[in-house]
Design a protein that fits this description.
32% of the residues are buried. The protein is mainly β and 119 residues long. Helices cover 0% and strands 51% of the residues.
């Protein structure tokens, strides 16, 4: 079973950037499709970005397109989310997740990292 630990969150001004990291142990990130999700207070968790298990194909929520970039470093067993041009509405707890081959849902989740964007 893979364990995921997010880091890199913090407080940033609007227009700034952050890079979130998701370090995996107990399994290789190259064996999973990896995703980032976020949840703001009082709101449901929402999809942000994903990268498929094989290759480098990525998928983004409309709110993230053009501003966020998901990437994976298999050698470091880590997935990243580069977030640029941050907005106050990006404030949320960000979660990393892993999905096994043929799984319909994400199977493993990290504990989350807080991102707060001030206006």
């Amino acid at each position: 079973q893979v364990q995921l630990v997010e880091s890199g969150g913090g407080l940033v001004q609007a227009g700034g950037s952050l890079r979130l990291s998701c370090a995996a142990s107990g399994g290789a990130v190259s064996s999973y499709s990896m995703g980032w999700f976020r949840q703001a207070p009082g709101k449901e968790r929402e999809f942000v970005a994903a990268i498929i298990r094989l290759g480098t194909s990525t998928n983004y929520a409309n709110s993230a397109k053009g501003r966020f970039t998901i990437s994976r470093d298999n050698a470091k067993n880590t997935v990243y989310l580069q977030m640029n041009s941050l907005k106050p509405e990006d404030s949320a707890v960000y979660y990393c997740a892993a999905r096994r081959v043929l799984s319909q849902e994400y199977d493993y989740w990290g504990q989350g990292t807080q991102v707060t964007v001030s206006s």
